[in-house]
């Protein structure tokens, strides 16, 4: 299994999820289809499916064109979002086969009602049919923890906004109980290159966090070299991302100093309060950042 990030638009990432044995691939959020198809050609792989994390135009907006350019590709997305066009909608826990890889949909709905992350692992038994099919449960996965595509739910050192009908409970569950519960060495591929801005906020929240300081140095070096800051890992985010750290004394002090002690009533209120502070931190007006 291999992942190739494909920079698209101003600061988005599409990705190619590649099964090396079968040379099949899935395109994740291919909002600029031509760029993703060109990347697949360079890698010598055939795109058999599209994995759409959510319905915002900068993630799903290429689906219609993609379906015309690669008509055999199966287009997947969360069942509670709206896609045009779509082939199959996924519920929490449904799976897609990409050769010998299983991509499991994880419902993370605070950013859009149907937002899903895709946790991908290689499985015993080799390659499957192109495109695969949604199923109620994944085949037995190999020991390797794999990768997760987090769309606009989790970013490096940050997270997406709580939008529309999203709730603090969904926010905490999606970030801490779903993504944060994956194996620590799971590679994290996010939907946007927001890392520099996220690190500025995170450092203001937890100035004493040595893991965060180390991540900031790594990101600074990558960006200076013209390289993306992905992948991160679940372990890195658990150690450095304040939105996965509601029990941190520095996080709690930062929130209570601005919103009062009542904001510390639960992990949900801590994280939702932190997100509300981030919304007005002055780091940009993007819907995700």
TrEMBL record:
Residues 11-192 form the Metallo-beta-lactamase domain. It comes from the Eukaryota. Its cofactor is Zn(2+). It holds the Pfam family Lactamase_B. Gene3D superfamilies: Ribonuclease Z/Hydroxyacylglutathione hydrolase-like (3.60.15.10). InterPro entries: Clx_II_MBL (IPR035680), HAGH_C (IPR032282), Hydroxyacylglutathione_Hdrlase (IPR017782), Metallo-B-lactamas (IPR001279), RibonucZ/Hydroxyglut_hydro (IPR036866). Keywords: Hydrolase, Metal-binding, Zinc. SMART domains: Lactamase_B. One of its GO terms (molecular function) is metal ion binding. GO terms for biological process: methylglyoxal catabolic process to D-lactate via S-lactoyl-glutathione. NCBIfam families: GSH_gloB. Belongs to the metallo-beta-lactamase superfamily. Glyoxalase II family. This is Metallo-beta-lactamase domain-containing protein. It comes from Cafeteria roenbergensis (Marine flagellate).
């Amino acid at each position: 299994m291999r992942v190739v990030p494909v920079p698209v638009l101003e600061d988005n990432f599409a990705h190619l999820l590649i099964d090396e044995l079968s040379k099949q691939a899935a395109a994740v959020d291919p909002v600029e289809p031509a760029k993703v198809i060109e990347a697949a050609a360079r890698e010598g792989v055939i795109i058999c499916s599209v994995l759409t994390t959510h319905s915002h135009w900068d993630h799903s907006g290429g689906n219609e064109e993609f379906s015309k350019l690669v008509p055999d590709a199966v287009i997947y997305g969360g069942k509670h979002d709206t896609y045009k066009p779509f082939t199959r909608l996924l519920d929490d826990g449904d799976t897609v086969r990409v050769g010998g890889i299983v991509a499991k949909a994880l419902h993370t709905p605070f950013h859009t009602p149907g937002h899903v992350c895709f946790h991908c692992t290689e499985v015993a038994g080799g390659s499957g049919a192109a495109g695969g099919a949604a199923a109620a449960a994944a085949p037995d996965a190999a020991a390797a923890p794999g990768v997760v595509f987090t769309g606009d739910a989790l970013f490096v050192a940050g997270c997406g906004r709580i939008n529309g009908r999203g709730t603090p409970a969904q926010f905490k569950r999606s970030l801490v109980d779903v993504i944060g519960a994956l194996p620590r060495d799971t590679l994290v591929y996010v939907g946007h290159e927001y890392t520099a801005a996220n690190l500025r906020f995170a450092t203001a929240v937890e100035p004493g966090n040595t893991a965060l300081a180390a991540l900031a140095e790594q990101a600074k070096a990558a960006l200076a070299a013209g390289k993306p800051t992905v992948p991160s890992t679940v372990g890195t985010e658990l150690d450095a991302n304040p939105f996965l750290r509601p029990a941190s004394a520095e996080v709690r002090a930062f929130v209570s100093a601005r919103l009062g002690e009542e904001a510390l009533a639960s992990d949900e209120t801590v994280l939702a309060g932190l997100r509300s502070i981030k919304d007005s931190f002055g780091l940009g007006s993007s819907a995700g950042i």
